[in-house]
Write a structure and sequence with these properties.
The chain is α/β, with parallel strands linked by helices and about 375 residues long. It is built from 13 helices and 9 strands. The structure holds nicotinamide-adenine-dinucleotide and zinc ion. One of its GO terms (biological process) is antibiotic biosynthetic process.
């Protein structure tokens, strides 16, 4: 993407180029690692550009940064349609730029370039923007899909391994709800993909990396497309997101989002086995793959039945009064439950206790 001969980064959503100045907003890590190449790219193409760099930290998802971006759009003289700002970074950066663009003049287009694994497989398909407010995550936001999103696996070469594991949690979720082939790829190559940071050291892994990312994105797009505005709250993509939100908040900063999602994937699979919906052999495969991805299958907070009951109660409010709990009936298949009771949550939590690992990284070896 940063090869000056490649026009993609400049190309406007409808095609063609802008002669007006573009605002390019960079994640601070991207500026540090790729800033010279980004600047060389626009210089070589003689495109007038102004830069703004923001930290890729959850605290950056603030109304102050939205207003800072809006001020820069004013300074730059951004046109209504023909000079959309370009956001290059992880999900934090693209969420905050997306919100600013969706408010500016009641909404202008923007170009989203995702640079972490989580952002590439999850954020890049999403229609949502958002910032945190008064201690609540994504409390303010909009549904405003950008007309153009670009993904380049090259950026993953510098993403820290724990951030890659974070993205792997979301890929695992996609595999579990609808893609047995993706699950098999994770079983076979997941550990190597993390080790090589989705690059292509031997001339074969690059194709696997592209297939894994491509399948995760295609699966997500297929699920979101008919329900972009989330009017239907029975969403299989919510698998792994029923108990994890509260646990993730309680565990901060220990658990990244994708790690909490993975724990929820395992816990929900335990519930499914206890109901006789899922073959215990499938649960064994799921637990084995989490360990291979150096993701923990269990955690003390997922053994705490009271916390898990509270987590589900909060999710029920988020799902407008229904559990709508996605549950596996096989690897690649889900159904929905609305009658999960306290006793079965406690029983599943007790099973999670038997899976507590000491150190997932060494257990995986
Ligand atoms: N809009 C949506 O629907 C949606 C969906 C999922 C997640 N999100 C949001 O995404 C955010 C999480 O995104 P994330 O996981 O990308 O985290 P992030 O944006 O915080 O990035 C993680 C870290 O990686 C750094 N980084 C980014 N690209 C890099 C690169 N190529 N090399 C080295 N370091 C790099 C960042 O500076 C940061 O320190 C959350 O705020 C979440 O709410 C939004
Ligand atoms: Zn998620």
């Amino acid at each position: 993407m940063l090869d000056p001969a490649n026009p993609e980064l400049l190309t406007l959503p409808g095609g063609g180029r802008s002669t007006a100045t573009r605002l390019v907003v960079l994640d601070h890590s991207i500026d540090e690692l790729y800033g010279d190449r980004v600047r060389a790219y626009f210089d070589a193409n003689s495109v007038p550009v102004e830069y703004l760099t923001l930290p890729g930290l959850e605290e950056s998802k603030s109304i102050e940064n939205v207003l800072k971006i809006v001020s820069r759009l004013n300074d730059v003289g951004t046109n209504r349609l023909s000079s959309p700002p370009i956001a290059i970074g992880g999900g934090v950066l693209t969420d905050v730029v997306g919100l600013a663009a969706s408010l500016y003049r009641r909404g202008i287009p923007y170009v989203r370039v995702t640079t972490t694994l989580l952002a590439q497989v999850d954020v890049s398909v999403a229609a949502k923007t958002g910032i945190n407010y008064e201690g609540y995550r994504n409390r303010l936001g909009t549904y405003s899909p950008p007309p153009r999103t670009l993904i380049d696996r090259m950026f993953l070469a510098t993403v820290p391994r724990h951030q890659l594991r974070n993205g792997m949690g979301e890929i695992l979720k996609m595999a579990l709800i609808k893609d047995p082939r993706l699950f098999a790829l994770l079983e076979r190559h997941g550990a190597d993909l993390i080790e090589t940071r989705f690059q292509d050291p031997d001339g074969t892994l690059g194709a696997v990396a592209s297939e894994v990312i491509g399948r995760a994105i295609a699966g997500m797009a297929e699920e979101l497309e008919p329900n972009l505005w989330e009017k239907n709250l029975r969403r299989s993509v919510d698998y792994g997101h029923s108990f994890s939100p509260l646990v993730e908040m309680r565990a901060l900063p220990e658990l990244l989002h994708g790690e909490a999602v993975t724990l929820d994937c395992v816990f929900s699979a335990v519930l499914a086995v206890r109901r006789g919906l899922l073959d215990p052999a499938d649960l064994d495969r799921i637990v084995a793959v989490t360990r291979r991805l150096t993701l923990r299958p269990s955690h003390p907070l997922f053994c705490d039945a009271d916390l898990l009951r509270e987590a589900l109660a909060d999710t029920v409010r988020h799902r407008d009064g229904q559990q709508n709990l996605p549950i596996l009936t096989g690897i690649g298949r889900v159904c929905f439950l609305n009658d999960v009771g306290d006793a079965e949550i406690a029983a599943a939590a007790a099973v999670m206790e038997t899976m507590l690992d000491t150190d997932p990284v060494s257990a995986a070896r």
